[in-house]
Amino acid sequence: MLKQVINQSGLIVRGIFDDFKQLLSPPLCIGCDGNLANNDPVFCESCLESLKSKCPGIHPVCPFCGGYDFDNKSCRSCGRSSKIRLYYWGRYEDDVMGYILKFKFQGVLELGVRLTDEALNRFADPLRKNNYDFVIPVPLHGSRQRRREYNQSEIIARRVAKAIRAEYLPDSIFRVRSTRQQAKIDSEAKRWENVKNAFRLSGERYIEFTARRVLIVDDIVTTGATVYEVSRPIREQKPEMVDIFSLAYAG
Ligand SMILES: [Zn+2]
Ligand SMILES: [Zn+2]
User: Fold this and answer.
1) pLDDT in tens, 41-61
2) 30 C-alpha to ligand 2 centroid (Å)
3) For the domain that residue 135 is a member of, what is the CATH number?
4) According to the model, what pLDDT value does residue 212 have?
5) 57 within 8 A of 242, measured Cβ to Cβ
6) Which domain range does residue 67 map to?
7) Phi, psi of 85 (to 5 degrees)
8) 78 CA to middle of ligand 2, Å?
9) N or C: more exposed end of the chain, with fewer CB within 10 A?
10) Ligand 2 centroid to 61 CA: how many Å?
């Protein structure tokens, strides 16, 4: 009995000691546990350099094939409409993939904020030039958001909207049914089928999109099927422009 009490109090003391140690020790780089770069809350200098080298230009691509070659009507590589353009920050591979997975599934929200700010260092100006009226995050279905407790696209979209001075509209579109996670579906045709007509305009917060400029925000774009379907009810109202911004492109 006495031994048990001592053991328990030992655990408590050790717990307090660990908390204290964490308070005293400075936070470390999320990529390599090294010392943080000056004024950077998340990365050391070399992880930051590596990240920057992986994230290419600022020009929009076709969200369905990643091609750069399109005229006003269609993409010359895949033939789909070129009305929707994708601005993305990094390819979904190596460290970019690792960081996004940590942000998305392990709840490291400050990492999502930091990645978004890094992306905005490059994209705020070109996006601002397009004069978007609204920034809309890809909504999760209610049940999935309750399980995860946050929507990663909302975290990104809120910061993008602020940086480009557009109105942030989180509740204007909703998912009418729960869909399977796109990443878990292997064929492209099934991914399109999975999200078809899955989104509607919200009756509660109805926004008129006619002749307006809209930027839809997602964390990762793969086939472009989800963002295409999110944009469907908006496009039915004949907006002037609908584009996509994502942290990563996996197509
Ligand atoms: Zn590092
Ligand atoms: Zn294309």
Assistant:
1) 999 999 999 988 888 788 899
2) 35
3) 3.40.50
4) 97
5) no
6) 57-249
7) -115, 150
8) 4
9) N
10) 8
CA 224 to centroid of ligand 2, rounded, Å: 10
Q: Tell the burial category of 12 from Cβ atoms under 10 Å away from its Cβ (0-12, 13-18, 19+).
A: exposed
Question: CA-CA distances (angstroms) from residue 41 to 47, 99, 206, 240?
Answer: 13, 14, 38, 39
Is 14 part of any domain? no
235 domain residue, yes or no: yes
Cα–ligand 2 centroid distance for 235 (angstroms): 18
- Amino acid identity for residue 45 in this structure: E
Say which ligand is closest to the CA of 224.
2
In a domain, 16, yes or no: no
Query: How far apart are alpha carbons 251 and 177 in whole angstroms?
Result: 25
State the chain's mean pLDDT as an integer.
87
- What is the whole-number distance in angstroms between the Cα of residue 114 and the centre of ligand 2? 30
Number of the ligand closest to the Cα of 70: 2
- Counting ligands in written order, the one closest to the CA of 76 is 2
Neighbours of ion ligand 2 (CB under 5 A): 62, 64-65, 67, 75, 77-78
CA gap 22, 26 in Å, rounded: 8
21 within some domain:
no
Q: How far is CA 91 from CA 142, 209, 248, in A?
A: 29, 31, 5
Positive/negative CA dihedral, 141, 144, 150, 155: negative
Distance 81 CA to ligand 2 centre (A): 8
